Amino acid sequence: MALGAGSAASWNAEDMEAASPASTSTSVSCDAATKHDDEFNKAFKHKFAKVREVRMHYVKGGSGPALVLLHGWPQSWYEWRKIMPALAKKHTVYALDLPGLGDSRGSPPSFDKKTLARYVHGLLQDRIGLDKFDLVAHDLGGGVGFQYTSQYPEQVSSYTHMDYPLPGRKLPAAQYRTFSWHMAFNSQKKIPERLVDNPDDVREYLTGFYPQVAYGGSAFGGSRTKSPFTRAETDEYVRTYSRPEVLRAGFELYRSLDKDERDNAAARSVNTRTLLLTATGSLASAKPTLKSKLTNIKRAVEIPKSGHWLAEENAEAVKDEIVDFTRK
């Protein structure tokens, strides 16, 4: 049983569909980015379920074998928006907001990825009732995805791990933090919240950061300054990360990397069929951190002309890779 003793009934009330529109002008609905998208709303619904003290938000749609999507930082379920309609033709898609992030409410006791994986398990198995599914995870969501696959391998039919070198014996957290300035900054205690302390600061931080790790950005030796996201896409991420508790939760994902290193080193290796997708030029550095723990990597590929934001920068390639891999 995830997170402690008790039956599935202990996870509280039935799933609820999101109310829309928001009840007050100061409370923006979780469907703010999709409420005017008629095609999307025909296929997908926003839902909530209580997992202990966290009210978890997810978006569900489609039909067929279950496919679960886990986002990274600083994003939410919305990072999958471009590929969800195509995936929903083959799968019942569940795009989650991780505990404490996006439109999930409440905070788990820790943001180490082992703990977050247990909350995701509480949602998927105990609340939704999924016994078997394909799992796709990006960025720090990949830390959760690995821990989920390690802890509950019998549930995961296939695992797609996207652009996340795994902290552990092959990659100490201290070394991981040297890969980009934002990793070291986000890991500091209290300072990030003090410097990024209002919605304007959040927008300035995110809009400055997004192009740096996009294709041609400074993280890849380029000079790109144009964001890979539209204004509307950025608005959605600014909306969620402007909530102080979500902003803090995002920073906690980095502050917990030392525990992630220890947990991953201790985690059992798994033989789950795995697809590894990375940014252009990143495969050689990512794969060695994973292969001792994910021992059945069937395919490893760089997404063409894509930086870190794989599902947005080259949605067609990512969609094709996932569909092809999960049909086997």
Automatic annotation (TrEMBL):
Q: Which organism is it from?
A: Streptomyces boncukensis
InterPro entries reported for this sequence:
AB_hydrolase_1 (IPR000073), AB_hydrolase_fold (IPR029058), Epox_hydrolase-like (IPR000639)
For this UniProt record, the keywords arranged alphabetically read as follows: Hydrolase
Protein name as catalogued: Alpha/beta hydrolase
Q: Name one GO molecular function term.
A: hydrolase activity
Q: One Pfam family of this protein, by short name?
A: Abhydrolase_1
Q: Which Gene3D superfamilies match?
A: alpha/beta hydrolase
AB hydrolase-1 domain ranges (all copies):
65-184
